[in-house]
Design goal:
31% of the residues lie in helices and 30% in strands. It is of the alpha/beta class. It starts with a strand and ends with a strand.
Length: 244
């Protein structure tokens, strides 16, 4: 039986990878939430990684949760991740590392180096997927997410904090073709937060406000986050607007 250690940031890609691993019948050994000490990490998603812990709780997998803080400095943070994964492999045993890598060869090559050291394989179900079809697949399979940061020309502020459904995906694809950004945000054009998914027993509810930091740069300031039943209605509240 395949046993895995999954990297989970709270965003769409790592959630999709973990969801796919569980759906495939793989069994968890650890779920590693990495928090960089710097916001300009080359390797890791940075905003609101603490909310990944609520996601793990909703999955009923809290016993597998492991937290790791890294320096956020280029390459040093990779060494820190490697040390942590080697220790977890020795303590818990796993043969697969689950990652949400999509197109970043920088990230994939470094995870592969770690996997090779411990004799593990990599499970990256989104690796080199067509980004437009991948975005459609995410919402088609029931992952519900919002944008929590925008940092590219062409993505309007109104999409920040708004649930991304089929209509929003098509708008993002259209805008990406017009402005030239990656439609799945692999270049850091936006960051995401999953608030519900098929493998969640409860959904994540948030209250937040939109903040303009610079031209084309907008951040969601999350004031409150909690888990609620899936039948709760309007659960996302941003600047006085509520979304189901």
């Amino acid at each position: 039986m395949t046993r895995f250690c999954s990297l989970l940031s709270g965003g769409k890609d790592s959630n999709y990878a973990l969801y796919t691993a569980l759906k495939s019948g793989m069994k968890p050994s650890c779920i590693l939430v990495v928090t960089p000490a710097r916001s300009d990490s080359w390797m890791f998603h940075t905003p609101y990684t603490s909310l990944a812990e609520l996601q793990v709780e909703s999955m009923g997998l809290r016993e597998y949760l492991v937290r790791l803080t890294v320096s956020g400095r280029k390459e040093e943070e990779v060494d820190e991740l490697e040390d942590a994964l080697v220790s977890l492999w020795e303590e818990r045993g796993f043969d697969t590392i689950v990652v949400g890598a999509l197109a970043s060869r920088y990230q994939y090559a470094r995870i592969k180096r770690i996997a090779d050291r411990i004799g593990a394989q990599i499970f990256a179900p989104a690796w080199q997927a067509d980004p437009e079809q991948y975005m459609r697949r995410l919402v088609g399979e029931g992952l519900k997410f919002i944008l929590i940061r925008i940092s590219v020309m062409g993505l309007p502020q109104r999409l920040l904090g708004r649930p991304i459904g089929p209509g929003e995906v098509e708008e993002i694809i259209r805008l990406s073709r017009k402005y030239g950004f990656h439609p799945a945000f692999e270049g850091g054009e936006a960051e995401t937060l999953v608030y519900d998914a098929p493998h969640y027993s409860r959904k994540l509810c948030i209250e937040a406000e939109r903040i303009r930091e610079a031209p084309y740069t907008y951040t969601l300031n999350i004031k409150n986050a909690r888990l609620a039943g899936k039948d709760e209605g309007e659960c996302i509240r941003v600047d006085g607007e509520s979304y189901p």
